[in-house]
Amino acid sequence: GDSVTQMEGPVTLSEEAFLTINCTYTATGYPSLFWYVQYPGEGLQLLLKATKADDKGSNKGFEATYRKETTSFHLEKGSVQVSDSAVYFCALWNTGNQFYFGTGTSLTVIP
Amino acid sequence: EAGVVQSPRYKIIEKKQPVAFWCNPISGHNTLYWYLQNLGQGPELLIRYENEEAVDDSQLPKDRFSAERLKGVDSTLKIQPAELGDSAVYLCASSLEGGLRTDTQYFGPGTRLTVL
After folding, report:
1. What residues in chain A have per-residue pLDDT under 70?
2. Nearest CB to A101: which of B40, B42, B109?
């Protein structure tokens, strides 16, 4: 069945460091891909999405490109801030309105 | 625009007791989802509604869990009786019209349930 695999955490970075969180997926057909962020004590918030191959989603300095050839949707940010500390979830939507989430990657950014 | 509202935010109960969670989706959103999120895991779908109709409840443990969405707006998720393993965060989400690849789910803050 469909699934999402994202890199294990936790990840700890210094402020202004480059961030990559890997996400790969298994799916039939042509899924849509998402990154959600969960700040402490809050619900999940959509960070960015891409609905077809080669689309690039971007928001708040974060980017991810839908790579069908490598079945990946890696999250990147050039310069992280302390306020980016959160848990990041990669997710997949497929026909039949099935949503699959990864296990989450915890990011801590230290000043 | 108001987001998805859930209550209570926290609930502590003894095992074998009943518990209910309430969700008010974003106005105009036809699709409503209930998810279970265990510590260190991603959300897992329990049930999905399209208006009043439960269109996917295949992952809902029907022996103890029930849900309803009267009038296609608010929804209630109930557990009776609760077990220790039910301790988790219960998330509600809504979307304008599920089934579209461009649709986006908006999540509430969740209810953290602790069963003692």
Report:
1. 96-97
2. B42
